[in-house]
Structure formats: structure tokens, C-alpha cells
Amino acid sequence: MFVTPAYAQAAGGGGADAFLLQLPFIIAIIAIFYFLLIRPQQKRMKEHRAKIEAVRRGDKIVTGGGILAKVTKVVDDGELEVELADGVRVRIVRSTVADVVSKGEPAEK
């Protein structure tokens, strides 16, 4: 009816062997997450960053707040001057641009 201490001690071994059997599955799960989630997200972020860096005068953009605007002037690397309506111009930070709706014609000098 009662388990002797000798039987109870023999049943607890094998902790390191179990970890070594689970290690390939853990590595496989990490690889799956990398190729299905992390890598595509990094690719989308890189494409978005390139699109935002290529914004020039005449492009129609959408800001992070959902405002549609037309770029009238690229002030410097971090700022844009956009026209919200006829005669209404605002300076915004380039990082707030969410999307480039349409590319405008190249600016004439």
C-alpha cells in the first residue's frame, strides 16, 4: 500500500534527456515564426520606409491622421510642406506620412 522510498527515488530521473528531445521542436518553432512572421514584416517595413523617403513635390499622400494632402515642398530630410486645401499649407514631419497615394509629375525647375 505504501511506496517505499527506493521506488519513489527511481521514478524521478531523465530530466536532461527530455530537454534534448524537445530541443529540435523548439528550434523548428522559432524558425517557423521567423520565416512566416518576422521576415515578411521586416520586408514590408523596409518597402514602406523606401516609399516614404522617395516622397517628392507633387505627390499625393495620406498622413498618419488620415488627412489627404499634396506635397508642395520638401523642406529637408525630416519635414515636408503639404497643401491640405487651396491656399492652406502646413509643414509636417516626414515620419507621419502613412502612405503615398499617387506619384506626381517631376517638379520643373
From TrEMBL:
<keyword id="KW-1003">Cell membrane</keyword>
<dbReference type="GO" id="GO:0005886">
    <property type="term" value="C:plasma membrane"/>
</dbReference>
<comment type="function">
    <text>The SecYEG-SecDF-YajC-YidC holo-translocon (HTL) protein secretase/insertase is a supercomplex required for protein secretion, insertion of proteins into membranes, and assembly of membrane protein complexes. While the SecYEG complex is essential for assembly of a number of proteins and complexes, the SecDF-YajC-YidC subcomplex facilitates these functions.</text>
</comment>
<dbReference type="Pfam" id="PF02699">
    <property type="entry name" value="YajC"/>
</dbReference>
<keyword id="KW-0812">Transmembrane</keyword>
<dbReference type="GO" id="GO:0015031">
    <property type="term" value="P:protein transport"/>
</dbReference>
<comment type="similarity">
    <text>Belongs to the YajC family.</text>
</comment>
<dbReference type="InterPro" id="IPR003849">
    <property type="entry name" value="Preprotein_translocase_YajC"/>
</dbReference>
<keyword id="KW-0653">Protein transport</keyword>
<keyword id="KW-1133">Transmembrane helix</keyword>
<comment type="subunit">
    <text>Part of the SecDF-YidC-YajC translocase complex. The SecDF-YidC-YajC translocase forms a supercomplex with SecYEG, called the holo-translocon (HTL).</text>
</comment>
<keyword id="KW-0813">Transport</keyword>
<protein>
    <recommendedName>
        <fullName>Sec translocon accessory complex subunit YajC</fullName>
    </recommendedName>
</protein>
<keyword id="KW-0472">Membrane</keyword>
<feature type="transmembrane region" description="Helical">
    <location>
        <begin position="20"/>
        <end position="38"/>
    </location>
</feature>
<keyword id="KW-0811">Translocation</keyword>
